[in-house]
Amino acid sequence: MADLTQNLDKPVRNALTENHENERKLTILEKIYLPEIFKGLWYTLKQMFKPKVTMMYPEEKWDPPAIFRGRPVLVEDNGKERCVACGLCARACPPLAISMQAEETEDEKERYPAFFEINMLRCIYCGFCEEVCPEEAIVMSKDYDLVYHSRAEAIYGKDKLLVDKEDLKERLDFLKEYKNRQFGQFWKFRQDNNIHSVRDRDEEWDTGLSLVDLLESKKETD
Amino acid sequence: MIEIVQKGKSRPEMVINMGPQHPSTHGVLRLEVTLDGELVTHVRPHIGYLHRCFEKYGESVGDYGMVTPFTDRMDYVSAMNQEHGYVIAMERLLDIEVPERVEYIRVIMAELQRIASHLLAVGTFGLDLGAFTPFLYVFTEREKILDIFEKSSGARLLYNYMCIGGLMRDVDDDFKKDTEEFVRTFRPKITELQNLLTYNSIFIKRTAHIGVLPPKVALNYAASGPVLRGSGVKWDLRKNNPYSIYDRFDFDIPVGEGEVGTLGDCWDRYIVRVLEMEESCKIIEQALEAMPDEGDVQQNVPKRVRTKPGEIYARTETPRGELGYYIISDTSAKPYRIKARAPSFVNLSLLPAISRGSLMSDLVAIVGSIDIVLGEVDR
Fold it and tell me: pLDDT (tens digit, 9 = 90+) per residue, B91-132?
């Protein structure tokens, strides 16, 4: 075995050490490398007749499954955001990408975000914001190819974040089912977490409608 | 940048910068190479181009659970193993018993990730030496593993799947079927890889007798993982210091034997990775058989992590070697200190010792064979 101290002090010209008694001599067939080249070519030729695994990306878009965590978006419900600006997502965000300012509104929801920004340069798509949201107002969408021309452009405001709930149906359905599986029941956000925000509560809570939906339907019946 | 240094009356030495944009440094590594003709007399790795303050972030970010996504980003080609190490450390600190099903899922995920990581390692190693064909086919296989991960965790590279005390969510319904199918179809592919690359005489000529790391030197430098095992030292934490449920499985630890060259050369480090994929397949098969079908994966997840003042060091075997997390806790919600012992960093420190006296073109093979991930080196 080579002596370590000597090895470090001055370079040895030959990297060989004497520890190669196990070495097996290559056979003639292995030494001539032509068979190896033909083996590689033959393998490639065989692959030509197998199904393709690639896709023509920009022309042919990949549709991710519902579980996929793309860019976070705010759910738009009847033209308004579901968000009540509680700030939990900003609190849970590991890279501190979310910022918001709450404002009061005449609406029965009482609070809404005056501005809501996600710095997409900081976002790491971990999904914690969606995990903690009591209103199912921020969810991960399927968008995965984001392009910005400047840093300022990468800070997404409400104009870019709001997506209609019909477009997010797949993800919202998935969340309902997955939360069912985790907690044994559908987590009744409006009952469990948001009682404070509703002035006159009635038995309509089990309809499965979101807060904004519920208020809209109430207006219609009134 | 080329600089010729005149040292006394001896022959001029040349200083060349290899990297940080050199494709075969596997990331942003800069090597300051001193050459005597074509022989390497000294290599000095310059690191830090990918430094993201993991340790400082761990101390200042909200709470213990919010560190997990950042552990993913340390070694981004084996994110599951990094998470596994962190959650094991936290569970030992908090004395949390993890449900049986969670342990099995974690082990299966970690072993799948080991296969994916080794596939990438041997694929790019071949690519460095001019073998382009195997690279594309190992990526096809790796893609299948990423598909399995995506179905369960929702991401393809940085999963954020494990959490302290359990998993973020249960696995996909098809998980068992998919994994069995993958292992079944993957076994013949290892043989194919062996036929294409392992005994190719060009490949052997480029790797045998190159970058020889004697076992004693490997131990002195605290090397771990395939780099250590390639030198013939049988040391694997999964066997020698079993964590999680690894003591229940029957598998071997492949070590380098110097089959076509010197013990501890680049070829030995390569073959250890190839053989380890087979062993991982064995573990996955056994785990799938023993895995309980039902069970809540979140039943032992603490609602809020409350720590007492204390400290913990937990080490796990990642595809690159021994990953250790040293966590000091106090009564606050944030960790007082997180230190990560990254195997790539330690293995990279070997580079000057083993590349001395080799040719410039062999340096590429040596860097490829120690399989570093710069995300983990710099943290």
Answer: 988 888 888 889 999 999 999 999 999 999 999 998 888 888
Rounded alpha-carbon distances, angstroms, from residue B2 to B14, B15, B49, B327: 7, 6, 21, 44
Of A1, A13, A20, which has the smallest distance from its Cβ to B39's Cβ?
A13
A23 touches chain B (CB under 8 A): yes
Taking domain A72-178, whether its CATH number is 3.50.50.60 is answered by no
Contacts with A13 from chain B: Cβ below 8 Å:
39, 357
Residue B292, pLDDT above cutoff 80: yes
Does the pLDDT value for residue A21 go beyond 80? Answer: no
CB contact (8 A) between residue B150 and residue A24: no
Confidence of residue B212 (pLDDT cuts 50, 70, 90): confident
Q: Residues A7-41, buried b or exposed e (16+ Cβ, 10 A)? A: beeebeeebbbebbeebeeeeeebeeeeebeeebe
157-216 of A, contacting B, C-beta below 8 A:
178, 181-182
**What order of strands is seen across the sheet that includes strand B30-36?**
B2-5, B13-18, B30-36, B39-46
Contact list in A for residue B70 (CB cut-off 8 A) is 94
**Which one of A14, A15, A40 has the shortest CB-CB distance to B196?**
A40
User: Which residues on chain A are in Cβ contact (under 8 Å) with B258?
Assistant: 19-23
Report CB contact under 8 Å: B62, A91.
yes
- Residue A33: its chain B contacts at CB < 8 A? 200-202
At the fourth CATH level, the homologous superfamily of domain B11-377 is Cytochrome-c3 Hydrogenase, chain B (1.10.645.10)
Q: Domain extents for chain B?
A: 11-377
State pLDDT tens for residues B234-290: 888 888 888 888 888 888 889 888 788 788 888 889 999 999 999 999 999 999 998
Has the ipTM of the complex gone over 0.85?
Answer: no
Question: Do residue A127 and residue B154 have CB atoms under 8 angstroms apart?
Answer: yes
Considering the entire predicted model, what is its pTM? 0.83
Q: d(Cα A64, Cα A144) in Å, to the nearest integer?
A: 9
Domain ranges for chain A, please list them. 72-178, 183-221
In eight-state DSSP terms, residue A77 is E
Pairing of strands B321-329, A138-140: unpaired
**Residues A178, B169: C-beta atoms closer than 8 Å:** yes
> What are residue A19's phi and psi, to 5 degrees?
-85, 60
- Among B154, B155, B357, the residue with its CB nearest the CB of A15 is B357
DSSP run (H or E) holding B4: strand B2-5
